[in-house]
Amino acid sequence: MTLASPIDAAPAAAHRQPLKIGIVSPYGYPHPGGVNQHVGHLHEGLRERGHDVWIITSKYGKQRESEGHIIRLGTGWAFPANGSVGRVTLGLRFKRQAREVLEAHRFDILHFHEPFVPFLSPTVLDASETVNVATFHAFGGFSPSYWIGSKFAGRLAGLLHGRIAVSGAARHFIDRYFPGDYRIIPNGVEIEKFAEAQPYEELRDGTLNILFVGRFEERKGLIHLLKAYHRLRKRKVDARLLVIGDGPKRREYKRYVGLRGIRDVEFLGRVSDEEKVRYFASADIYCAPNTGQESFGIVLLEAMAAGVPIVASDIHGFKRVVERNVQGILVEPRNPRALAAALYTLARDPELRHDMGEAGRERAPEFSWDRVTERIVDYYYEVRERVLVSGR
């Protein structure tokens, strides 16, 4: 695999014409999730820069077929995939609808997020007659669906003029099935929002607050954190575990806590973005006990922007975000004993918590949405110029 060249040769912003951009998300925007969070921030940042930006996505439940700059084609359905929940778009008319939308809008750029997720993204890509850029977010082990897809989707992959991966892990994963040139442009974080948030006063009572944010499923690893927290309480650490999220294992996790009489575990359910930011501001430690199959870890950026030290699993998608023993402590995945030891180390050392939190604040601006969006815009113009010159 040959890496793409740096963005030094991108045209100067002063000589650029605004673009009409279609962002394609197969995940039913604005349905909660990391990809749609990325899409939302990118949409906002591009519009702030004067571009005409539309989101093309699928319809879930009672969502409208279109609203504002959101166009919905087909109907999305959820299914288990990669230790989480996957999505697939189906419909009797959305192939024709896709052609009609593209013909009506005449986009300069179509930006696909996970372009091979069936069937919305491949359908729009197949109908496209413009410059096609894709971002790949996923990471995992061997993927039967990608392996099968690589045998049949080669022609579609050939329609991509530019490819972005959110991390080295994501690039390594997709390059196994669709080799090519990938530009690494990471996910972003709202620096000011997290840096300026106010904590909940009732949580600043001297008790150590450990925060978890994630879906209640196997690969997010909450069960390992619950076991580690149980060990921590047995060591007489005055702590409180704040758990934000929901999912299929909710009853199992609550049952685990109840049967063992583990004190001060607060299951907060789903919260608004504003509430989540305040919980980060209230946290003394952020814990990410994920078991694997993570390409990046947006929650780690959020913790860093909030100045919260981190204890996280030592997995590929995390180790390029959190520097070992700088912004946090990395431990072996699925190891509650190691997780408890790391939490105990930070719980007993306020100065270390402070230093790691400040190191996170210093690193977080590298991932600001302003900087990430600018890099993506540079890449749009770079790819578009290459296509125009080549005549492809």
How would you describe this structure to a colleague?
The structure is a single chain. The protein is α/β, with parallel strands linked by helices. Helix content is 40%, strand content 20%. Helix 9 (250-260) links the parallel strand 11 and strand 12 (265-269). The two termini are 21 Å apart.
- How far from one another are the termini? 21 Å
Mean pLDDT metric: 90
Radius of gyration: 22 Å
Runs in which pLDDT lies below 50 for 5 or more consecutive residues are: 1-14
Structural class: alpha/beta
**CATH-assigned fold name of the largest domain:** Rossmann fold
Give the CA-based shape.
Answer: elongated
Q: State the CATH class of the largest domain.
A: Alpha Beta
> What profile does the largest beta sheet have?
9 strands, mixed
Within CATH, the superfamily of the largest domain carries the name Glycogen Phosphorylase B
Helix content: 25-40%
Fill in the keyword field for this structure:
disordered N terminus, Rossmann fold, single chain, 2 domains, 392 residues, alpha/beta, 15 helices, six-stranded parallel sheet
In short:
The chain contains 15 helices and 15 strands. It is α/β, with parallel strands linked by helices and 392 residues long. It folds into two domains: 7-188 and 368-390, 3-Layer(aba) Sandwich (Rossmann fold), CATH 3.40.50; 191-365, Glycogen Phosphorylase B (Rossmann fold).
